[in-house]
Predict the 3D structure of the following.
Amino acid sequence: MEIPRPGCHSPLSVANSRKKSSQVHPGQGPEQRGIPLQGQVDLVTYHDEESLYTVLKLVLESGYDAPKDPDLFPSGRVTVVGRWANPMEGARVRVLGQWGRHASHGNQFEFEVLQTLVPVDAPGLKRYLASKAFPGVGKALAERIVSHLGTDTLQRIAEEENCLVGIKGLKPGVAATLREAVIAQTALHETLSFLHGVGLGPLQAQATLTRLGPGCETHVREDPYCLMGVPGLGFVLADRVARELGLEDDDPRRLRAALVHALERASDDGHTFLVQVELLETARDLLRVSTPNGPFEDALDTLCREGLLVVDERVFSQVEGFVPVYLPHLHTSELGAARNIRRLMAEGPSSALADTEALEAAESDGHLELHTGQREAVLTLLSQPVALLTGGPGVGKTTIIRFVANLAEGSGAKILLASPTGRAAKRLSEATGRPASTIHRLLGFDSTDGGFEHGVNKPLKADLVIVDEISMLDVVLAHHLFKALDSKTRLVLVGDPNQLPSVGPGNVLGDLLDSGSVPTARLTQIYRQAAKSQIVQNAHRILGGDMPATDGDPAEGADFFFFPSEEAAATADLLMDVVTRRLEDRFGIDWVQDVQVIAPMYRGECGVDALNDRLREAQGVGGREVVRGEQRWRTGDRVIHTRNDYEKEVFNGDMGVIHTVTGDGIVTVRYPEQDVVYSGGELSQLRPAFAITVHRSQGGEFPVVVLPLVRQHAMMLQRNLLYTAVTRAQRMVVLVGSRHALAMAVENVRQVDRSSALSERLAADSDG
């Protein structure tokens, strides 16, 4: 292992991944990507360990000059910003980028590429050895080492085992540690040099080192597609690395990776499998090759032998040529979900938890008379080992859940209630007056290994489990839930099949209904009180394919409005005016507290990202702020938590407001039930939430919902998306945009059919 000689350099952090153009491509050398600067790091002002965003003070070497302005750049010491995995004071670096000006911090150099260089002179070597990379050395000892070994200090330490003997004050233990550190730094530089040279940015290289270890270069050279297992990388980048390393178009490793990636992408789109013929064609399209089926079939056989894919010829055996191919965990989940539903139905309790007499008594006690369909629903749910309750808004699903829970508890049954998200669980708890949790918490999710405490060997202790909002339940979580239920436990599943399907793969609610195997109570009659609401009326009109009525008189209690605007930019301006001024002027609505903007997409003038920026500025709350990478947080910001954190007891979908920001960047978010503190990388769990997507809104309710509808979002304008957004509102819905876009959404029922076999497996007589 050779230390680069003075004057040479090895890349340490190339291709700042903050910008798309930062990635290395064949034929694009570093010098083509910016102005070069070179010098020594005098001070690391700021470094974020998660985003790697770094602010440095750099003392420029002769020949590299800042703009001629001594007031802005005194003594050749400039501010340099970008991404660097392991910033070190004293390091000699070369950066490529552009001069810019930050609104708050003034002039600075923004780099896209950073390379570490071996120090070439005694002062540089002394400072380098005195840095934190070499503990136990310090300035005085570093000076004696360099004076003793000269400008070849680093190379000699690495290659000459006894070169440090005799240096005053250098103890043998420190000398050994120093030598190990120099060799390790050299190996790290060489590994990073390789990774960056094939196109990985700092974050990507760091993730690769973490996942694959110090021998990652060997792994990548043997099979570049091992990078697909590194978080945040994926097939596209791995394939670019493979091409950089010279793999042929039809290399078996490339074909295998394309097959796996095709199924991963299908999973992202909600499918649990792809038919083999479709899979081969999709993989061929991904690679843009004309390779015949034979090599792809060989690659598929290899993947199946290695347990990386599963071909299931039994489930659709009656359909010639229809052979589904699965990712293993999805095959296990789909098969397991079906097996356990059938087990629960076959082995579950046969006696009802309550009868008609008990139901009539409950109605009398609650001073509430159920209609015939509702009574039948309650008795079905209490008498079957597994049952479904479905229906749209205003039909009384919550009332039925409350009756079922009351009657079950009255019979001495132990009840557990859950929903897929924290927000939905809170709604269920409020509606029933009982504790409810996320399914993850119910099952005892362990974030360290991604497993669950409860399962086959430790089932949940309950007589009845009620799960709400199961339209959001994907097949993997369904599998874990169903297998954690003892055969003596009843299961009630509640959901609206017209809502958007789960973000994860599968179509659990739809498949349960389509199978015809699970007893189902369907509520269709709208409550008298709910029938007065235009929100409820229009939700059902939308389901029927009719345009919502928007001509009601506010003076007579109208709660559904439409503000027309054709162009996206004008619609965004109108929406801002409606949200921040008109609703308060006309109805006295506090938009910061009560209005939730829900948009179909992130992109565009009427997308979530742009509207969040505008609404945040419209709020105008001052106070402290903290910057993490490119995201800025400040007091008063509305935020949404994006992953389950059981230590903090805050869950995916929980929404709050930033209450305080300390001087050292610690953020406290005030949620309805508690304050939660975030620091450093934990802030990545937050997203702005003045505007959210329709998928993010699922499981929640808001006093007022404002929804932009523009043709710019045509690909997402679907009936179930519009229906889901509208049914999130408690008191008022406001649509802003194009009537043509509204009509597109109402008429578009072309939802992508999800490839899933849960329905067929439930209907089968065996474990096929």
Notes: Residues 122-192 form one domain.
